Amino acid sequence: MVPEDRSDGPGAGEERARLQAAGTVRKGCDLPADSPHGHLQSRRARIHQQIDRELRMRTGAENLYRATSNARVRETVALELSDVNSSLQLLKEELAGLDNSGDTAQPESEGVTAPMIPLGLKETKPLDWAPPLKELICRHFGEDGASYEAEIRELEDLRQATRTPSRSKAGLELLTAYYNQLCFLEARFVTPARSLGLLFHWYDSLTGLPAQQRALAFEKGSVLFNIGALHTQIGARQNRSCPEGISRAVESFQRAAGAFSLLRENFSQAPSPDMSPASLSMLEQLMSAQAQECVFEGLLLQAPGATHGRLAQLRLAQEAAQVAAEYRLVHRTMAQPPIQDYVPFPWTTLVHVKAEHFRALAHYHAALGLCDGAPVAESELPVLEQVFLASAEAQSPALPQEREERSKLGKAHLRRALLGQEAALQLHAMCRALRREDLLQAVLARALRRSLAKYSELDLEDDFHEATEAPDVQPKTQQRPEGRTPSFSQVKVADIFHRLGPLSVFSAKNHWRLVGPVHLSRGEGGFGFTLRGDSPVLIAAVVPGGRAAEAGLKEGDYIVSVSGQPCRWWKHAEVVAQLQGVGDGGVSLQVATPLPAAKLPISGDRRPALGGLLRSQKECGQETPVPSRARPRPRPLLGWNHKANRGKTGRTLSPAPQP
What we know:
659 residues, 7% strand
């Protein structure tokens, strides 16, 4: 999808300067290396370099192993491969430890809340945009590529800043601004038949393994992945002891799920495991589960009177069962190949712990609701009975009418809560990485203490009757957080290569011939042509036998220069005024002639402009471009298989300037 082309002629440069002077996200969010987050990013980058070195050694050893037939050499190489693979495993575990605990700060909360799973950003290597862009600008657009060094340097600075974005709104805007610039680059320089030729190198977020691809779509997909990952980091560090922090956390996880969903739907050929459809689906499920957990925490923070009472407690039980069901789904997905091969073990364990923990919480709140001493109204019975699930062998359970029977059933639910919380603590103790998470242990221990206290209270009323088996709690939520697509349109950017002209005409997808400069003098009937449209202005008609016809100008030519002044972004009135002010010396014009699909550029005074597909504007169904203030059309987000179809409405024919 191509961002809105906001450039509008001579004022576009002033607009870009105004945005930069105002402190836009383009260059202001790169973090210092001595900051905590910058230090972690540097450690991660060093681990990636070590992984890359080990992979090169492994590749060389594998080639030697396949090439030799000497048994002793093969044995030596096999030992070397074993050492390299062991080193790689240790490096990947170290990287997983950084992503699991060090990539985001502990939640800024005085209360005790369970930790969330943030996703580490994909790392990348520096990229030299200058050679391919300069060559393409020279060959296709017919301009001096060296004159665009400032624009190329601005693009490189923007990409460099996105390697360490701040975990805030400014960091998200920085990544979004770069993503929008990539949309401009794709629309202007990339064709279906040819890429830029750059090798984009990114490291897998889950395994640290390098991946390379020459498609600009890989760069866009990796940036979109980092937008989703940064949302997870922002959501994980929110203060969830207050409603405002919970609301921000829910939105962050929703945005992350939307980013991964969008990437999964548009990026089908993944060069790295973290961007495969299976991984993205797992990440989408994980972020939805974490958002649902925040919804449950928000209900617990409501006014004390709102969470008391039978119906309120049973609603909390169903909400907790919903969270548990979603975490069980995530755990099943993580345990299946090939995801289980590269998902960090602490993630899988934490998800399993939370599934057990929230299932125990569901039984705990169900017990509180059943042990409420208030009588049950007849209108409440249908609602209450829908809370519990029967086993496959038994029929739907009936809610006991007597207070004593309800208390027995509540005690049975407390037993299941105690068993589940003990199972969660055992799973927590089995993972060395999770044992260092004091917050998680505090949450699990607190839940166990509450259940034990309530069980002891009910045990005083024990009449030695055996309680019935507690049924499962029906998962249900009153607020299901759906994935939300990142808001790309809220970050407005100006096309860095705006000087090349409007994208609807001056892109690698279209071909034209540059004619001129052609010198024209005013005749008795003027210059012999009429003009139409804006940005760029085109020649609508050429008078036969007139000065324009003699100079070789044709209907449909775009005027790109008037007396040496670039006018690709000029309005119709500006070009007419410039021509009307021409004296006896005449004027020099340079025009761009669109080429039919089957016609190649020729040499001579019409300089060739090489590109991808040879398509004239008429063959693409486009009319004369409109001013840039016109409402933009919807744009594809990733643009792997979408063609540019941005048309512009025509203007009324204007007479040629008269003498």
